[in-house]
Amino acid sequence: MKHAGAEALARLEPLIAALREMPGLRERKTGIFYRGSRAFLHFHEDAAGLFADVRLTETFERVEVTTREQQQTLVRTIEARVNGRGLDSRRAR
Questions:
Q1: Which candidate among 40, 43, 56, 89 keeps its CA 20 to 30 Å from the CA of 65?
Q2: pLDDT, tens digit, for every residue of 1-30?
Q3: Where are the beta strands (DSSP E) in the chain?
């Protein structure tokens, strides 16, 4: 599975735009987000679809983001995490 290229990132633009609005996240390169000094989220693509690797705990978790519904679910999950309502929120600060 390769990192998402320009075409894949263009397909994810609504999701990326929502992530850019979240306090606490910083986009270092297009589609690559950090939370503080730690890598937090980046995207991959392959024949099966589009995926986000997101650090919701100490390790990255791969989440499919091919559909709009999957993207919206990820945004809600990240919002809860960034706002301290997610699981294990004490360790990520």
A1: 89
A2: 899 999 999 999 999 999 999 998 999 999
A3: 2-3, 25-29, 32-35, 38-46, 49-55, 60-64
Tokens of 84: 């301290």
Task: Examine the pLDDT at 44 and tell me if it is beyond 60.
Answer: yes
Q: Is 60 helix (H, G, I), strand (E, B) or coil?
A: strand
Q: In the numeric block, which tokens belong to residue 59? A: 């390790």
Long-range (24+ apart) CB contacts under 8 A made by 56-59 are 56/81, 56/86, 56/87, 56/88, 57/87, 57/88, 57/91, 57/92, 58/91
Residue that is written with structure tokens 């894949």 in the block:
8
Prediction pTM value = 0.84
CA distance 10 to 18: 14
